[in-house]
Amino acid sequence: METQRSIVDVVPTHVVREGGGFKVRRPYRMGKVLSPFLLIDEMGPTVYGPGEAVGAPWHPHRGFETVTYLLDGRMEHEDSAGNSGELNPGDVQWMTAGRGIIHCEEPHREFLHSGGRSHGFQIWVNLPSSDKMMDPRYQEVPSSESPTVEQDGVWARVIAGECMGTTSSIDTVIPITMVHVKMDADTCLVQKFETKLNGMVYVFGGEISLEGEPRVKSHPEAFGIRARQQVRDGELGLLSEGDQATILSKKGAEFLILAGPELNEPIERYGPFVMNTKEEIHQAFIDYRSGNFAN
Questions:
Q1: pTM here?
Q2: Cis peptide before 261, with omega less than 30 degrees from 0?
Q3: Cβ atoms 175, 197 nearer than 8 A
Q4: Which of 1, 22, 192, 237 could pair with 231 as two cysteines, CB 3.0-4.6 Å apart?
Q5: Closest-CA residue to 22 (of 4, 6, 41)
Q6: Which of 224, 136, 139, 229 is nearest to 176 (CA)?
Q7: What's the pLDDT score for residue 17?
């Protein structure tokens, strides 16, 4: 018998500025109770005029992964190893910083010139101590190759993991689920989970609720309602353990499903460095300042 996940806590968001001054919406308590996710930053949505768009100038990373997922706008990136590219709506960049990378992420020059709507996510995924000094790597998946699935009024892009029988091609260091979901009104999604993974849902449009076992699977409006909290726009719902979550939306919703393991390791974090000890943070600064950061 499948064990249903429920909502055990709802974490609100606050607005902070990052990079060159762009606004992000970020859940409180990040990095404390949400292992292995260190940050869930919703960038925008913001409408920029010509010449107004800003990004993140050159900066280093060590010890974790960054996932950039663009919904609207255009970005371009470059790094200290000579890699460069661009991100368009629906594209995913999964960057494993590992032992170190220095890069910049800026508005695409054409987008900067014209302006427009910018919206997306950057999510930081912690690495276990055994992998913090692994070789850096990029996995860039254009929207045309990023798997999507649609069933009964529910659409999903499977960035990592699995949803509705569709699996991502992203190679993750640790087991990660990351799915972008859009639900029409009066629809239902049954999302499978590995039982012991931490699970959460970040809602950035509309509202969802999690329910017990549905009585009539073909009619979401007839489900037996067994008192669960709702998660609304700008909130992060933390889930209990279990094999699956039955997600309902009466008026429609848009959200991210996230899951990953509890690493159970100490975290020492200073800005763009996330390690396990103060000594490792100190060494990261030495390596960065000496020009040997990624060596």
A1: 0.90
A2: no
A3: yes
A4: 237
A5: 41
A6: 139
A7: 83
Examine residue 252 and state whether it is found in any structural domain, yes or no.
Answer: yes
Q: Which residues of 108-146 are buried (b: 16+ CB within 10 A; e: fewer)?
A: beebbeebbebbbbbbbbbbeeebbeeebeebbbeeeeb
**pLDDT < 50 regions, the chain:** 213-228
Indicate which CATH number applies to the domain containing 248.
2.60.120.10
DSSP SS3 for 60: strand
Q: What 3-state class would DSSP assign to 51?
A: coil
> Any alpha helices (H) in 217-269, and if so which ranges?
none
Indicate whether 238 belongs to any domain: yes
Evaluate whether residue 105 is within a structural domain.
yes
Residue in the structure block whose two tokens are 């849902």? 201
Report how many domains make up the chain. 1
| Structural domain harbouring 128 | 7-260
Pairing, β 244-249 against β 253-260: unpaired
Q: Which residues of 10-28 are buried (b: 16+ CB within 10 A; e: fewer)?
A: bbebeeeebbeebbbbbbe
| HEC per residue, 265-276 | CCCEEECCEEEC
**What pLDDT shows up at residue 42?**
96
What CA–CA distance (Å, rounded) separates 213 from 224? 8
Place of tokens 């993974």: 197
Q: Specify the pLDDT at position 197.
A: 94
